[in-house]
Amino acid sequence: MTGERDAAVGDGIPGDATRCPCGSGDVFGGCCGPLLAGSAAPTAERLMRSRFTAFALRDAAYLRASWHPSTRPAVLDLDDDLVWKRLVIVDRVAGGPFDREGVVEFEAFFRQGAERGSLRERSRFVREGRSWLYLDGQVG
C-alpha cells in the first residue's frame, strides 16, 4: 500500500531508549524523537537526520511540516515496501544555529523487496525564525 499517512503510537515508533534510526549513535529520545514531537532542529544536519527518521517511520505529517511551503508537495507518496536502513552524512556547508541557509549532502541506504540500493542527495535548507526547513535537493 502506498500513500500519505501519519505515524501513530504502536506503529513501529522506537522507544526513547532505542538507538535512533538516523545513525547518530544517540537514543531516539535524545535525538530525533523530540524533533518529530515538535521541537525545533538546532541545525540543518539535525533536521536532515530527523527527516531520514521520519521517512524510515513513514511519518508524512512531520515530513510535510519540515518542508518549506514554496517547494512542499501537496501529497507525499510513501512506499510501504521501501525500508530505509542507514544514513551517512557526506558533507555539510553552513547550516549551524546562527546561519540562515545550509547544505547537507547525504547517502541513504534502503531495501525494497530483494533489492538494495542507496540515494545520494545534496539538500538545501533555510532557517525561518527558529525553524530549519528542507527547501530542495539535487539527487546524484
Assembly state here?
single chain
**The biggest beta sheet, please?**
4 strands, antiparallel
* Helical percentage: 10-25%
Round the Cα radius of gyration to an integer and report it: 14 Å
**Shape verdict:** globular
How many DSSP-defined strands?
A: 6
Kindly report the average pLDDT value.
92
Provide the spatial order of strands within the biggest beta sheet.
3-4-5-6
Roughly how many Å apart are the termini? 27 Å
- Structural class computed from helices and strand pairing: alpha+beta
Q: Give me the number of helical elements.
A: 3
Low-confidence stretches: 1-10
Give the helix/strand layout.
Blueprint: E1 2-3, H1 32-36, H2 44-57, H3 60-65, E2 78-79, E3 82-94, E4 101-112, E5 115-128, E6 131-139
Antiparallel strand pairs: 1-2, 3-4, 4-5, 5-6
Write up this protein.
By secondary structure, the chain is an alpha+beta fold. It has helices at residues 32-36, 44-57, 60-65; strands at residues 2-3, 78-79, 82-94, 101-112, 115-128, 131-139. The strands form 2 sheets. A 4-stranded antiparallel beta sheet has the order 3-4-5-6, with helices on one face. Strands 1-2 form a two-stranded antiparallel ribbon. Strand 4 and strand 5 form a beta hairpin. The chain starts with a strand and ends with a strand.
